């Protein structure tokens, strides 16, 4: 954040299902922090998934947020409008030798990794590097043939290019900041662009935070480890890094975090059952 600039925060849901209590907590915490810091709160729709992102779900998100009484500054940014920017960043990393095409399916990666492989913070097997050492002519031939592929960050080269130490600014609910060390290497050769779009969540989020001049990120604790990878990408791409706060997750009776994939009760369902915004706010600790 440049000297004298007002703080900027963002709430960035994905339109692959209706919002639930976990999303409501994150949105309300962002609004509270923006008010405490005297900053602006932006809305970003992370709709890079061309299959699961649907217009009616975007409308539902906007409806839910309005029902909660949340208001956002400026125009809503949709990631689906930013594919050229993502492709340019991906191509720049590839041209610098920091990213490479990977033609392996998930099944092939799992099989190549073997039993009990080292895993990344999300629990996925670390990529064993099958495509990392492909000869340039082989890569070019397979790309020209239109073979399906993702793009991976060459972690070893990335850390040679930007050896660090990598530090992350973190802040508490009162806005007080400190720093912690980042360990991006534990992500291995992470995917930075998918087969169907020229980006992944990791690449898109750092580019969009920079483009929107986001100074403070408030998001769930399930993304805390990803911040290590994001900090490295920011360094490689020459982007300013915001400060981060990762809040506890809302969990169900089974102790698992609420998730669309596990049919967490949607805000729309709670609203239809008679819940009010005030009741929901109180349930989440907001008076």
**Which CATH top level class of the largest domain fits?**
Alpha Beta
Using the CA coordinates, give the radius of gyration: 20 Å
CATH architecture of the largest domain: Alpha-Beta Complex
Termini gap: 31 Å
Spatial order of strands in the largest sheet: 1-2-3
Q: DSSP strand (E) fraction?
A: 5-15%
Record field, number of beta strands: 10
Name the average pLDDT.
Answer: 93
Please tell me what the overall shape is: globular
**Main sheet properties:** 3 strands, parallel
Tally the helices: what do you get? 10
Order of SSEs: EHEHEHEHHEHEEEHEHEHH
| SS-derived structural category | alpha/beta
Helix proportion: 25-40%
Q: How many domains?
A: 2
What is the assigned CATH homologous superfamily of the largest domain?
Glutamyl-tRNA Synthetase, Domain 3
Report low-confidence residues grouped into runs of 5 or more: none
Keywords: Aminoacyl-tRNA synthetase, ATP-binding, Ligase, Metal-binding, Nucleotide-binding, Protein biosynthesis, Zinc
Protein name: Glutamyl-Q tRNA(Asp) synthetase
InterPro entries: aa-tRNA-synth_I_CS, Glu/Gln-tRNA-synth, Glu/Gln-tRNA-synth_Ib_cat-dom, GluQ/Sye, Rossmann-like_a/b/a_fold
Domain Glutamyl/glutaminyl-tRNA synthetase class Ib catalytic: 9-264
In short:
The protein has 287 residues and is an alpha/beta fold.
Describe this structure in words.
The protein has 10 helices and 10 strands. The radius of gyration is 20 Å and the shape is globular. It is an alpha/beta fold and 287 residues long. Helix 7 crosses helix 8 (226-237). The strands form 4 sheets. The protein has a 3-stranded parallel sheet. Strands 4-5-8 form a 3-stranded antiparallel sheet. The chain has 2 domains: 7-81 and 251-287, Rossmann fold (3-Layer(aba) Sandwich), CATH 3.40.50.620; 82-211, Glutamyl-tRNA Synthetase, domain 3, CATH 3.90.800. Helix 2 links the parallel strand 2 and strand 3.
